[in-house]
Amino acid sequence: MLEQGTISIHTENIFPIIKKSLYSDHEIFLRELVSNAVDAIEKVKMVSRAGEYNSEIGEPEIAITVDKEQKTLAIADNGIGMTAEEVKKYINQVAFSSAEEFVKKYEGKSDRAIIGHFGLGFYSSFMVAQQVEIDTLSYKEGSSAVRWTCDGSPEFRLEDSSRTQRGTTITLTLQEEELEYLEPARIRQLIKTYCDFLPVPIKLEGEVINRQKAPWRESPSSLTKEDYLEFYRYLYPFQDEPLLWVHLNTDYPFILNGILYFPKLVPDVDVTKGQIKLFCNQVFVSEHCEEIIPKFLLPMRGVIDSTDIPLNVSRSALQTDRTVRKIADYIARKVGDRLKELYRDNRQEYISSWQDIGTFVKFGALNDEKFKKQIEDIIIYRTTYEAKTETPAVEVQSQEGDAWQDVSAAPSLPYTTIKEYLERNKERHENRVFYCTNEATQATYIELHKQQGLEVLFMDSFIDTHFISFLEQEYANVKFSRVDSELDESLLEKDKAGEIVDPKTNKTRSELIKELFEQAINKPKVNIRTEALKSDNPQGSPPAIVLLPEFLRRMRDMSAMMQQQTAQFPEEHILLVNTTHPLIQNLVSLSEGGILQGDSKSPSAELANLICHHVYDLALMAQKGFDAEGMTAFVERSNQVLTRLTERAASS
Ligand SMILES: Nc1ncnc2c1ncn2[C@@H]1O[C@H](COP(=O)(O)OP(=O)(O)OP(=O)(O)O)[C@@H](O)[C@H]1O
Fold it and tell me: What's the CA-to-centroid distance between 99 and ligand 1, angstroms?
């Protein structure tokens, strides 16, 4: 026996407190002991390099063994080892004084709020062990091996050991309620979780169980695209390939390494939960780093590793920590830089990823002023504009709905920035942006604009509703109108239906049409307007369209959002009847007899009435589809119209 003594701590009974205060996280003892073993191996390499140790250092290795009979778990390393003096100093004094400090700091506080419990160190082994033994031999010439034992009370024993190999073995005799740590599968799982990327082979049952390579610690220039993809697959198996990635690598004014990936977004992803793994010196700390990553980048995946993130503080303290704020800014800036670089160097790839990254970028612009400034010029929108190139533009959205491949194959890509849009259309409609939010339901309107050479932007992602309001603030003098809200003058022709057709009443054709529809539809909230839509082929343009003024629509959307309902189609809307369409012209002739004779019950007038309804139904259908009731009425009326028409055809 070399010595028997009392550990110099001031708090009586530190161990029950350690056990209690860290109750939920017992498993991290293994992370702490393996980290110490890795440190010990690094240290022996350092002294060897410095010429202070001339023997072979051998292949670094950490071996974990379990003995179910003895109920022991041992972690052995071939690192620097400790002399008796060092054991006394580092274990009895250093380790336990920091234990005491930790306990004092967190006594009575909920440990759940603390992100990492990092640096708990050696004494965390007492969370699971009833006795801890250190068997160690220092690298120092002439030193003899020692064994230190402690049963969880402040008393320890220090004696000679028969050990001949340099290094340290920590043997824990587990407490009865901690015997799960005798299961190799449990140990393997813990090593995979916490120590997978530590740069020393960790052996269990003769097999190396950790990956060791931590790509984020390597220089970006030494990694290939496949290396990044392989690492992503390793971290997130069975997931789609990521779109692009950012390698973070700085050591001033803080140390930060990491690789962040933009994943392909899946609809059910919870964007409020971070998926980035936090490491400290390659040791896993936490699955969540919501406090460190800017909110808008939370859906990113990957790894960040920094020794400058305080880990033994509460989550709220972390949020306000100055270094953490700086790190968040740095990450946002790096992500912005990477996006700009891609926009500049590989527009095609940028565009193909836009469907997914666009959401991040817009969310970022909405939330972070600095980020907005950085990326505002690279926010793009799909457009109906087709650049005149030799090869024809390829449709973006394929029938199968897989926009990706088609875009990447497209020689000229129908995407634009708002600035480019405004510049291109300055002559035709200055400070005016036409957009659509749903390609399918607004197809008629998009087509109308397209035919007249008016460019329409697709603002159809879920974030765009908010983003449009944001754009309106950014471009205060620009008016944003959805294609179905009102029609630009340039889409209309001077109304040819302005000439008087009824000598008795002095009514114009246009007025007659309006009257006809008003009588037929008989809904005071539907405002009927007659216009002549410009078209090279009147048959091809719609006979009527429903318009929803921008202001009205937004009010409706907003109140629906506040009541958390889906917006109902408002009763108040405009039915624009296209006076140039042959159907509408026929309708006037058809009804003329009835109106002129003041006999609204004549078969012609009745048919005209039915057809007005039908035209209105079709216009509504193009805008919103029908509910069950509307659908039934529509089918009934269609059948009636067809019956009447066939009757007429048969009798003539
Ligand atoms: N396996 C080991 N080999 C050699 N020395 C060790 C080993 N384990 C612990 N030590 C020594 O004991 C000291 C105290 O360890 P402890 O884990 O409590 O704290 P730490 O590693 O210094 O810091 P941290 O609190 O961040 O873990 C270490 O600094 C080291 O000098």
Answer: 12
